[in-house]
Specification:
Layout lengths: L3 H21 L5 H17 L2 H19 L2 H4 L11 H20 L5 H22 L7 E2 L14 E2 L1 H20 L6 H24 L3 E4 L4 E2 L8 E5 L6 H20 L2
Antiparallel strand pairs: 1-2, 3-4, 3-5
Helix pairs in contact: 1-2, 1-3, 2-3, 2-5, 3-6, 5-6, 5-9, 6-7, 6-8, 6-9, 7-8, 8-9
Length: 261
C-alpha cells in the first residue's frame, strides 16, 4: 500500500507532468496551465490521489478529443492553445469546491457529487467533440426540427449524445475502481446525473447563452468572426464558460441530494 506521503508526491508529479505536456502540446494556454495546476493541487490535498486521477482523466480525454479530426472540424492547429484559464476554471472549479467541502464537512456523499460533476464536464466535452465529427448537422435540443452549425452551443447530434452518455459512465466506473464509490447504485447515479448535467448544459446553451448572427446569416459564438454583426441573441453575461460552470455545479448538487435520499 502507498502511504499518504507517497500519494501526495505521486499526485504532485502527475500534476507537473500534465502541466508540462499541456504547455508543450499547447493543449492549454499559460493561464490555463496555471489554473489547472492550482485546481489539481486543491483536489489532491482535499480529496486525495483517486479524486485527482478522476479529474485528470477528464483533462486528458478532453485534450485528446479536441485534436481528433481537427481537419474535419475546421480547426487550424498550431495557432493558439486549445483552452485557456476561463475554460479550465469553468470545468474544474466546481469539482474542486466539492473536494474542499468534503474535507471540511464529514458524513456526506461528497465523492458521488464530485464524480457526477466530473462526469458532467466529461460528457459535455465528449459530446461536443464527437458531435462535431457527425455527418449529420446538429439540431437544437429545444427545437429538434431546426439545425444549427456544428459547434454551436445547444446543438446536439445522435452520435455526440451517445458518446456523452458513455463518457459519463466511464468516469463513474473509473471513480468506483479508484474507491471513490462502493455501492453500484452510487455508480449508476453519478453516471446518469453526469449525463443530465450534459443535457442541462445544452439546454442553457440553446436558450440563454449569448450568440451572434452575422450579416450573411451565419450564427456564431465569437462576434469577431462576423464581417457584419446583425443581431445578438441571448444574455451577454452568459457565455459558454458560464453555462459549463452552472451545468457542472447543478450535476454535483443534484447527485449530492439524490444520494442522501
Amino acid at each position: 500500500m502507498i502511504d499518504q506521503a507517497w500519494k501526495l508526491v505521486l499526485g504532485l508529479a502527475l500534476i507537473a507532468a500534465l502541466a508540462v505536456v499541456s504547455a508543450t502540446k499547447r493543449y492549454l494556454s499559460a493561464g490555463g496551465v496555471a489554473a489547472a495546476a492550482v485546481i489539481g493541487v486543491g483536489v489532491l490535498v482535499a480529496g486525495g490521489l483517486g479524486w485527482l486521477i478522476v479529474l485528470m482523466a477528464f483533462t486528458v480525454l478532453g485534450s485528446a478529443l479536441t485534436r481528433t479530426g481537427a481537419d474535419l472540424k475546421g480547426i487550424i492547429s498550431g495557432l493558439k492553445a486549445d483552452r485557456g484559464a476561463k475554460n479550465v476554471l469553468a470545468n474544474g472549479l466546481p469539482p474542486m469546491i466539492i473536494a474542499v467541502a468534503s474535507s471540511l464537512i464529514a458524513g456526506l456523499p461528497w465523492s458521488v457529487a464530485f464524480t457526477a460533476a466530473v462526469a458532467a464536464a466529461t460528457s459535455d466535452t465528449v459530446s461536443t467533440e464527437i458531435g462535431m465529427l457527425s455527418r449529420s448537422p446538429p439540431r437544437r435540443i429545444t427545437r429538434p426540427w431546426r439545425t444549427v452549425p456544428p459547434g454551436i452551443s445547444g446543438g446536439v447530434s445522435a452520435i455526440g449524445t451517445l458518446a456523452g452518455l458513455l463518457a459519463a459512465g466511464a468516469i463513474s466506473l473509473l471513480a468506483a475502481a479508484l474507491g471513490l464509490m462502493t455501492e453500484p447504485s452510487q455508480v449508476v447515479l453519478a453516471a446518469l446525473v453526469g449525463f443530465v448535467g450534459n443535457l442541462v448544459d445544452s439546454m442553457l446553451g440553446d436558450l440563454a447563452e449569448v450568440k451572434y448572427k452575422c450579416g450573411a446569416g451565419a450564427l456564431v459564438e465569437d462576434p469577431s468572426t462576423c464581417d457584419q454583426l446583425v443581431e445578438r441573441i441571448g444574455h451577454p453575461v452568459i457565455n459558454n464558460h458560464t453555462v459549463n460552470a452552472i451545468a457542472i455545479s447543478i450535476a454535483g448538487v443534484l447527485a449530492l441530494l439524490l444520494s442522501m435520499i
